[in-house]
Specification:
With 282 residues, the protein is an alpha+beta fold. The protein is built from six helices and 16 strands. It is elongated.
Length: 282
């Protein structure tokens, strides 16, 4: 196999991000342990690549990363690092996740740790590693005359900006539409169905599924209100849409790092993307 062009993406530890802002955090042993373990993993991975004479580029996760020239992205961190990279990758590129500290990071999408990275990487180079397709979710946001398209691998939450306030919106799935009041609506891919979606009462989906799942959370019930759109699957050829009837709504993509205002009259469409990522797994 021709040596792929490799990008090494790593997260910054909580301790390094806090810097001088939190002396208390810097003295907390579990943060210190994570910091040491995480960067030890990063050094070990780099050492292995250098010993194997594998050229690579390295970049901390965040803005300014150009993923386009690379065939393989190796992530050092947890699922959050994989999700960030996945939003920018196309269907040609592959991703291999290394859980830098299993005692700290959730690593559902990570295929290895530091101790077995070399074995997994050599399996990848010899084309013996398993690779699966994970399909993305497509969000199209209409806000006045502006249209914004975003794709993600995990999930989208649409809700009020204040977690204690009621979320109000019109939800449409297929030919059915209804006004709802709830704590917000989750949408997830198959890959994201075992996270917040499952906790909210949804169901785990096969990773190969191209469907999207939706689940309103904590629907407001009364004697005069009956809801029909209480959750389910949205087939690949279909889509869901929401129109905001709240003054201070937000759309959160893959967690809390990416968010968009969703105020009166804003409309969002959610559907399965034609794009996928190729995830190396054990």
């Amino acid at each position: 196999m021709k040596t792929p062009k490799i990008l090494l993406i790593y997260k910054r530890s909580s301790l390094s991000v806090a810097g001088k802002l939190s002396a208390r955090l810097r003295k907390t042993r579990r943060f210190e342990n994570n910091h040491a373990t995480h960067y030890a993993t990063l050094r070990m991975i780099e050492g292995i690549l250098k010993r194997l004479n594998i050229k690579y580029h390295k970049h901390a996760r965040g803005k300014g990363v150009d993923y386009r020239p690379f065939d393989l992205v190796i992530t050092i961190g947890g699922d959050g690092t994989i999700l960030e990279a996945a939003r920018a990758l196309n269907s040609r590129q592959m991703i291999l996740g290394v859980n830098s500290d299993p005692n700290w990071s959730v690593g559902q999408f990570c295929c290895c740790e530091a101790k077995n990275f070399e074995v997994m990487f050599k399996r990848f180079l010899s084309r013996k590693a398993k690779v699966c397709r994970l399909y993305k979710l497509k969000l199209r946001l209409y806000d006045g005359k502006k249209v914004k398209d975003v794709e993600c691998l995990n999930d989208v939450l649409i809700c009020h900006a204040n977690p204690g306030a009621m979320s109000r919106y019109e939800l449409s799935v297929g030919k059915t539409a209804e006004d709802q009041r709830s704590s917000g609506v989750w949408f997830s891919t198959a890959a994201g169905s075992t996270g917040a979606m499952l906790s909210a009462g949804g169901r785990a989906m096969p990773l190969s599924s191209t469907d999207i799942q939706y689940k309103p959370r904590e629907l407001y019930h009364s004697r005069t209100v009956k809801y029909y759109l209480t959750g389910g699957l949205i087939k690949r050829e279909c889509k869901a849409s929401l129109v905001s009837t709240m003054a201070h709504g937000y759309i959160f993509v893959d967690g809390a790092h990416i968010k968009f205002p969703f105020t009166y009259g804003s409309r969002a469409e959610i559907s399965s993307s034609a794009h996928f990522i190729q995830l190396v797994h054990d």
